[in-house]
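anyone seen this seq b4? input:
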Amino acid sequence: MRRVVITGMGVIAAPGASVGDFFSSLVAGRSGSRPIQNLPPEVVSRLNCRIAAEVPGFEPLQHFTEKELDQLDRFSQFALVAARQALAQAGLEKLSEAQQPRTGVCIGTAYGGIETLDTQYFSLYAKNATRLSPLAIPRVMYNAATCQVSMRFQARGPCLTPTTACSSATHALGEAYRMIQQGQADWMLAGGSDAPITYGVVRGWEAMRVLAPENGNAARACRPFSGDRQGIVIGEGAAVFVLEEYEAARRRGAQILAELAGYGANSDASHITQPSVAGPAVAMRLALEDAGMKPEEIDYINAHGTATRVNDVIETRAIKEVFGAHAKKLPVSSTKSMHGHVMGASGAIELVAAVEAICRGVIPPTANYATPDPECDLDYVPNQARKIPVRAALSNSFAFGGLNAVLIVKRV
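predicted toks r here
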């Protein structure tokens, strides 16, 4: 089986619009949660939850022409920005004619062009519009980001869009990894993108009663694994990776950031919203088996860590079941405390943190950790980043529907 390495990364999220800025913010424990700015004030005033982890100061016209923006929902814009960064780091800004058919795209999303959908439906139902934009469907469709990245960079290989709720990006990276392993491609642009901070989406999550209240301090609202945690903060953004066949990377002298070494995916097959311990545990074991690694060889876990009462306990139990005695010595952190829950893009954004932890020898903290929870009793790297060598890291994503996906990256 062919080896797969990471030669480029791009990210745009609430803590930063480049890999360097993003990871520096994580290491400093800076949260990107703040009062919602990108919705009209009259809309925000109708919400019960008025905070989110938005990308600050994002100006689309700095990245795209007005004509290009006609075709791009916000989630596609984020994906293109992140893909451009990743290709630049990999030294593949312009794919050769030989590389184009051997390069594919796999970008996951949970919500697709929901901002366009929300706007168009408002025109249709509230303003009694009789016509919608002829570009509404191309902007809304879930595969829009994948297609736009493919067209922009002339990636003519296999292109697809997993949409598995909050595991979408991790499934996208895992399936792209398999394509290179099995010889269907030599390069894949893979990751996730979501821009779900809309009136309709926030109202939907409010109805589930899992959103963290502001309580006077938006930056501290998301508190994974802390005994006083109260729920998630919705985020937005994208992360895209250049995955490359190992020998191809060596031949062209590419800088290798890490090896994507293991992938596990399965289903709880039990409940649409309530996770099990067994499902996530099996997914982690599958990733370890795929990587040919023992639990003791993992130095860091980037947890799914949503900051909900149930999920954090379930993930803690699953980690203890898989890692046994090693779990007590294993640093585990949830970076959602700073970039929010970016839904279908979360797994890719979190994998950036895991790869950077390997490259820099620094584990980002779980920010906003205030008080222990007897049921969450692992080392969550509370509030302060930790400088230690990281040879291998595991990243968890668990989605509604019981769809679990786990990736392992390691130093080459």
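Residues 2 and 181 are 5 Å apart (CA to CA). The mean pLDDT is 98. kinda curious what u guys think
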